[in-house]
Write a structure and sequence with these properties.
5 helices; globular; binds zinc ion
Length: 150
């Protein structure tokens, strides 16, 4: 194979993520949700997205795999987004459903506008959490004009 200069866009990466997700959603969900503890130097990188273990335990209380002493964490999308730089932490994001950790409500209008950690509007004891990924999106893509509804 000839070596040649290749230019890759965020949309190229998202297309491959979607292809992989269509082929094996369980594997890709686990891969995207995986976090590895990392040090301060990586956390200080100017474009790579590094999160906190505290946040990850909050967003994914049942799936996190972090040791108790973890402070900073990195995942696959954080690293891929580091290729594209700033602003706002990079263009590539998973699109998640939200789900109540108590009553299991998901994909209902009452959850529109809710965020992970909010109280469930449908039950007394529930907290809204990130549910499964259903797509990948480019946060930097220009918004498509909305179709007129009649
Ligand atoms: Zn609920």
């Amino acid at each position: 194979m000839d070596k040649k200069l290749i230019s890759v866009t965020a949309d190229d990466v998202i297309r491959v993520l979607k292809e992989a997700f269509d082929l094996d959603p369980t594997a890709i969900q686990i891969l995207i949700d995986h976090r590895v503890p990392c040090n301060e130097a990586l956390a200080d990188h100017p474009t790579i997205q590094v999160g906190t273990a505290e946040n990850w335990r909050k967003y994914r209380p049942k799936s996190h795999n972090l040791p108790k002493n973890a402070v900073h964490t990195i995942g696959l999308l954080g690293l891929l987004n580091g290729v594209f730089g700033k602003p706002d932490g990079g263009p590539i994001a998973g699109a998640y459903d939200f789900i109540c950790d108590f009553c299991g409500a998901t994909n209902v209008p009452e959850l529109d506008g809710k965020r992970s950690g909010d109280d469930c509007p449908l039950c007394v004891n529930g907290t809204i959490r990130l549910g499964p990924i259903f797509d990948f999106k480019n946060l930097w893509a220009p918004e498509k004009p909305k179709e007129d509804k009649e």
